[in-house]
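Researcher: Hi, I'm a grad student and pretty new to this. My advisor asked me to get structures for two proteins we've been looking at. I'm not sure of the right format, so I'll just paste the first sequence and hope you can take it from there.
Model: That works fine. Here's the first sequence with its structure tokens right after it:
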Amino acid sequence: MNKELFGVLEDDGAFDELASRSSFDWVGAGENATVAIRDPALGFPGRSATYSDERGYCVLWGEVFPPDDVSTPVAEYTLDRYEEIGRDAFSELNGSFLVFVELDGDAIVATDPIRTWQCFYADTPRGRVFGTNPRRVVSAVPHTDVDTRGLLEYVHMGVVVDERTVFDQLNAVPFDGFLTTDEAGTLSRFIYDPAGPDEFDYVDELAARLERAITRRSNYPGKQGVLLSGGYDSRTIVAQHPGIDVCYTLGTPDHPEVVVARNIANQYGADHETLVANEDYLNVDESVIKYCLGTRESVHVHHAGCDGKLDADTVFHGLFFDTLLRGHFLPRNVVDILGNKFPLQGLDPNPDPTKVLSSKFGYHPACDHVFPECYDEFDTSMGFIDEVVHEQLDKWSNRYDNIYDSIALVGIQNQPTLPFHFELSDNYIESFVAADAELIDWHLKTPPEERNTETMKEAMRKLNPDIFRHRPPDRPHHSFRKNQIEKFLRRKLPGIEPFSTPWPDMDAQYAENELDRKLFPGYPRIHELPVRVKLRINDITTWMNSAVDTSLLTPNDVLCPPEQLLSNL
């Protein structure tokens, strides 16, 4: 990894056995921990920072800002505030980050409020080891067992939920959480508390907060790029950021979405380049799979095969805009007519959390035919997923008051698209605008029925009345319902071209590259599965074997883990 945070609590020489100090940009050794970071942007405003004095030291890793009225360097400010108010100091930080503090012999590492960075840890005979690279952390464990439950979640959902991983001895720091020498717990920064319209203007607040969030990130160094689609989210950044130099869109130059993105870039005075994907779009190499971190699918790193074509130092994107601001995980109200769903106003009055979340994660019903042959506890994958989801709803029930926020919370905690962020941040100065603390606060204060595309579009118009001069090609109407009806008609009526994604056809590329033959020779049952599921199986098989330096785990083992093999990894 080009960027990494790594440390050992209660260190007794283990750090130097597990890592070379010279490979990091900064190493801090206190009474109770040794911590190191590697980040080419270390020291830039808004980026990773360190500070130490006679009291102890503070490490901030990622994208992080102090409160707007603070002029003290952010790491020094955090150490001061931690001395004054303890863990509440982390609530004052803003961004996508991990923070480590050692003060008077006490050490703690904490995530940002929505855990945009996963930090892993393992307890070893030489101390508690933690870091952003799970392979380095698990290498400190003398004996590694596979967590069958975590493996099942990965294969059948596309995510390993909560704090679990695919190895028993490897855990993730909790969502909105912290880690100390003897505890892994949660903070209280992400709790739903909806406000009424009389006290909180949803549109005006969102517009003002978007403007400030982008302004905070407008002074990064070098050439400024943005991954731009023809939709709503990333165009907000292009319209508001004063210095975007170039916009990149994945697709073919003549695809309608690429054409719209090009027009948006021209509208705001930025250059535009089309990232034409080749056979590397389905990148099944370890160089991309490593960004799944063993908890998410690498398929979400859409741009990976085009990295060599991105000529930018800083890269912006619209990840999580739909999740936090437009209700991606919220169940919309629809009516079923002859097996076809048509949208109505508002939210589904009686949603099924398992059905909603499984559709937003990576569940595919084709997995069901292999499931009963391997496990007696459940009849289908959906039965297994239902238990996982309701376990999470019960665990986090003190953070929400309605079923819609419960679904959104579990979705945000286990967002499957994070590898997109991990890969970008490892190769560029990446800016995660949606992780701004003010936008997270807006999400928590805004009732679920107001977190929708219409609210965001109104806010965007307040920022720039001409922002929708070029409409998204798959949303030609201002009405959501009309757009959905046209999508349906285009799919059903002969002679009319349906709306399409600019990305390559995944199934076609899989077949053209003969990946069944290359990835799964001798596994005909796996050949029957959907392409996305097969890619997921390859992801986790490749990642786990590389993590423990072995080739013992086969694709069949992933589907039906034999206990004896797993206990010997």
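Researcher: Oh nice, that was easy. Here's the second one.
Model: And its structure:
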Amino acid sequence: MNSLYIQKNRGKKMSIIRRFNNVMWSSHHNTKDLLTMKNVRNGVSQVSPAISEGQTPPPRQTYSTKQFLGLLLGPILFFLILYALPLEGLSNEGRGVFATIVLVATWWILEVMPLGITSLLPIVLLPLLTDVTGKEAASSYGDPLNFLFLGGFAIALALERWRLHERIAITVIGIIGTSMSGLVIGFMLATGFISMWVSNTATALLMIPIGTAIATKVIDLMKEENVYTPEEDTKFTKSIIFAIGFGATIGGSATLIGTPSNLILAGLTKEILGIDISFAKWFIFAFPMIVILMASAAFYITKFAYPMKVKKLEKGHIFVMETKKELGKMSYEEKMVLTVFLLTAFMWLTRTFIWVNYIPALTDTIIAITGAVLLYLIPTKRGDNGRLLDGSSIKKMPWDVLLLVGGGLAIATGFSKTDLAVWSGDQLLALEGTSYITILAITTAIGILMTQVTPNTATATILIPIAATLAVAIQVDPLPVMTATALGTGFAYMMPISTPSNAIIFATGKITFTDMIRKGAWLTALTLVLIILFVYFLFPIVF
């Protein structure tokens, strides 16, 4: 009887594991399909429903060529670093961290497993190969910064649910004006503003449908006014799409929660240097640079990349009026979400100036979670006993990203508890004597170039600790060098695979690979220069 019971129990456990694996892969593929608008490009009107519990998923190829390459390459590199490469002076524990970094990075880039699952490998490998305990490795996944991101995403979900993002966008466009350039600039500013508080991915997904709808309407208006040409059609449509893509990428770097790279920087500086980067200080430093970059990008798109002969549409303001009429007056729900949104932003911005004197324990994470809790508490007036956010929103949270950030922090713990950091610095002594501004340029350029072909979260996780080590090796303050590197990883314009924002605009089918390379290259060069100048001159004043 006991053996029969054990077999049945084991069968149940295996069934649960199989279902969990199926659900994780289904979530991974559904997310990729959503980000690349696969269903739209294939002419499917609805997104396939998620696989329910107990339902058998459709058959898939076990490993693609890329995944199979990663499956082999990752362990090969892992064991080469661990046992074969002549890394003189590096301890076995340091080799273990180095090998873990390479394995995780390889599987991240080649998507051997879902990103969130790959990010759990440090929990397994670090305690086995280093002095990092299982508790220390696992605690990184519960870091307060992950909950800061969680709170920010809850606000994003509320904005989307009650269409407040549309009202913000159309309001900005109405203020800017109805000229062709004004509409492009309005979309860039609206997207950039939302991206400061909402993830770049979510912002691009929210704004692209609005942008393409407005582009279609404007083309119709051009035909009505007999100023339409295919060339003007192409220019305006591409201008709107690039304004959304570039605006989402640029705006996110203005705040700590706008892009994962900034969160990773904040986590690693606290882990490695013991320095807490506050929301307000980061905003004071980064916002002026973002304003200049946004203005430059808008000027470039409208005057150089896609200059239009049609300057203004007489009926352009009609579209704004019609959209405002469609949205109607602000509902009670919108007002409540806006109140929570503004209150959360105000508390973030003033915490270090005002509230730290009265509530010393108050942190940006506490503020974010308080805002999220309020959204789940405040009732609606729809008569359905609902709240501003309900339980279904939990399923939409970016768990993969949160695990990715946690994996990066776990690796940072391994970095700091072994001699890998010191050893890496010793290898970089060849740069000793190089000017400080040259070091900033090198680290920023490496960050920008790597993030064109790898996820910015993975790039930031790998490069920021190395930048800190380089700074220590040449005897300069590591914080500015780490900041320059993190900023570099946050700006990827040239490749569809660089960021989800790029993938989203590329998937519209309205812009080509060549378009992204050419238009992104100029903006990349400008971004590199601005990061160096701001980190060199403004960063020491603010921090």
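Researcher: Is there anything I should tell my advisor about the second?
Model: You could mention this: Confidence is low (pLDDT under 50) at residues 34-54.
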